[in-house]
Amino acid sequence: MRLVRRGHEPAWLPVAAVAVAVLVTVALSAIPIRLAGANPRAAFERYLLVPLSSTLGLYEVMLTATPLLFTGIAVAIAFRAGYWNIGAEGQFLMGAVGTTAVALNAPDLPSWAALPLGFVAGGLGGLAWAWLPAWLKRRGAIDEVVTTLLLNPVALLVVQGLLNGPWRNSETGFTDSDRFGAGYDLPPLISGSRVHWGFGVAVVIVVITWFVFTKTAVGMQIRASGQAPDAAKFSGIPVARLRFRSALVSGAVAGAGGASQVMGVQHQLTQGISNNYGYTGIIVATLAALSPVGVVLVAVLLADIAVGAENVSLVLQVPTQLGAIFAALLLLTVLSAMELRHYRLARSGRRRHGATPVSAEEAS
Amino acid sequence: MTPTRPLLELSGITKRFGDLVANDAVSLSVASGEVVAMLGENGAGKSTLMKIVYGLVRPDGGTITMDGRPLDISSPRDAMAAGIGMVTQEFSLVETMTVTENVALSSVGLGRVDVRAARQRVVDAMDRVGVQIEPERLISTLSIGERQRVEIVKALFHECRVLILDEPTAVLTPQDVRALFETVQRLRRTGLGVLFVSHKLREVAEISDRVVVLRRGSLVGERATAEVTTHELASLMMGGTAPEEDVASAVGLPVAEVPEEAPVAPREGAGTAERRPVLILTDVTLERPGRPALDHLTFEVRPGEIVGLAGISGNGQTELMNVLGGVELPTSGRVEVDGAAVTRLDVRGRLDAGLGRLTEDRRGSVVPQLSVEHNLVLEDLPSFTRRGMLDKAAIRAHAEEVIRRFDIRATPTDPVSSLSGGNMQKVLLARALSRRPKVLVAAQPTRGLDVGAYRYVHEQLHELRDTGAGVLVISEDLDELRSLCDRILVLFRGAITGGLPVAEATSERLGAMMTGESVEV
Ligand SMILES: Nc1ncnc2c1ncn2[C@@H]1O[C@H](COP(=O)(O)OP(=O)(O)OP(=O)(O)O)[C@@H](O)[C@H]1O
Ligand SMILES: [Mg+2]
Fold this sequence. Notes:
A: mainly alpha, 2 domains, disordered C terminus, B: alpha/beta, Rossmann fold, six-stranded mixed sheet, binds adenosine-5'-triphosphate
């Protein structure tokens, strides 16, 4: 058996590929779940269905999805333009730093001023962190994959430095910042739940992105720059400039995610403010095939699994990390399926070596 | 030369793309030592059929046999192993590798590569085919014409019993076509069967034993070349009756022999000469390691004239196109479009100054994943945008109009990657022409176009000229240049070696200039 490239791909093929990938993921992750001593069926039910079957669970999923929406759409914006921003993690952290800087210096602002200011400061923080790699890429053609990635741990060091120094908690002395003033608390989006307005902001950003991608001339230019940069240049599209700007927008959106997380959830800057949201954002964007609608679906799916994983670990006494294994397996299988769908299996060419049963025309 | 038993036989080959039937139960055979030519309009399904035989496309039905034995071809490797070689219409060379590496690439297994032996085998193969290219050169430094030759060498590198050539002559000079045909004749005497796709009836008449005609996916005719008239072939291809002129251009008659298309002398008169040229190149030099690619290139194109730039590919055509298009900056010199210096402007600036371009590199000019309608407006987005928003209705209307006018076999929403070669070329041409440029620079404007489209493009270029624009046509095809242009310049080693009004531009004189003999303008 070997793989052979398909000529034509029917329209249902991508859908089928994803379905197969999900089945394979389920089958594969059954093994570690079994090893951890739980019933895989019960576990899957809890991973996928239980969180979505109660209002409370649903709220929890929305809350968990919020930072992933920010980072997912941020990465999608950059990737669409052909700019490989791996630095959403650092940009998210610097967004949180930006918001914190404002919140600590003007703690008593009323919320009508504090909240917009917090988001703007967060966006600027992320943008600033995205600027250097984007500039290096544009001026010096320095590979952004390396520079954006390497700036992530630097951002974490900045956060830790600030928390160990000037922003150390003045009451407890712990390495997290003081609690923000009440004006900086993002109000709940749904009263009585922990879902905050950050979710609303994220959805608005996703909708705007969808609009720009599909309806505007800039969106089409970005697509062309990402898919066929030479042809785009040939058509007079300023590819380098578009990529630069997309990189900055991407950083700003990731930074806004950081703002949303400090103002909506933690209400103070902590070292663990980004729970690898930036990296998960890459997974979200990639699984979503860089489509804004897809980002929403995937972010919710991953949040569902994450919330489910909490539940599973409590009820079935297995490690939470199984949820991460599940998500990682899903990424691998979906990506493999998306690539493998271009091929089909063929029986190896027995006839190629003339090993076919000797027939009449051999003699003729 | 009577063909013996059939070597390769296709029967009932069917291929659908969604609703479109690209091949409809096509059956044909090629015998050892036989050259079968295949004709058909753009989008008739020729390339699809060839790709099926070569394992690049999987058929929905039908069988392929070699020597009467059924083949299961599911990849080019299978095809090669079965003794089938192919030169595809769009190239498949690795740009960053040398000629040797590219040719030897497909035969490299997991073991050690004996570079010296491979090089020798490649050189031998090139001798056999009659192609002279430095084996150490990088593909990226080769012109399109040279790349095509490497493709042919690559196809013949393997033990090959049936050779498929999909529009191999589209970019070759007449001399190279000669050489290729001689090679084909030589190879056929050794028993090679050849399937040859072309739009040029004259070539078909010269090289083939048998002609098959595809129309909208079906085989509509099969004739012995010796017994068929070009007129009959043209009617078969187009269905119904073909206009006389189309037949003439299909045969490739130089225009001088087709009365109403002969260049009109007065155009050269006072009227145009006094008007400011729309394109002026002054001492344009582009340095390259070794010798300059463009060497103090100086010429001009006046409004209302079509200037042909003849020359063997590799003498600076690609570089000139890059410098004119704004993709590459010249080392020194000056370029003016419609009175404005554009030497330092980017692509956008040049487009705005009134420059239109049609390059020989299709792949580098379209975004394959984008739809036909979006590719059509890519250069001119501001006109199809209202307050930053794409004007969907206008874009659709424009695409439908262009598709109708240029008879493009596609819908506005098809991704360009699914178009046949000729249809892709039509999209590019339509894009360049619909902006009404002041000067159009076109490289191989009719490459791969069928008879009807060929004539249509010439008409369009003439019309553009008659509205006062200047046109520069870069081509290796002297017949085409003579039928299209008012004046022909010759490019040799990056400089103009001379120019002739079309009436004096005989093949002999142009040929001499193309190899470096200077002739007074
Ligand atoms: N992958 C594909 N998906 C959808 N449609 C396709 C695909 N490949 C080819 N087609 C369509 O099939 C038809 C036949 O295409 P094909 O390339 O075989 O034409 P052709 O005869 O070689 O034309 P040309 O002379 O222009 O090269 C065209 O209408 C083309 O748009
Ligand atoms: Mg074709």
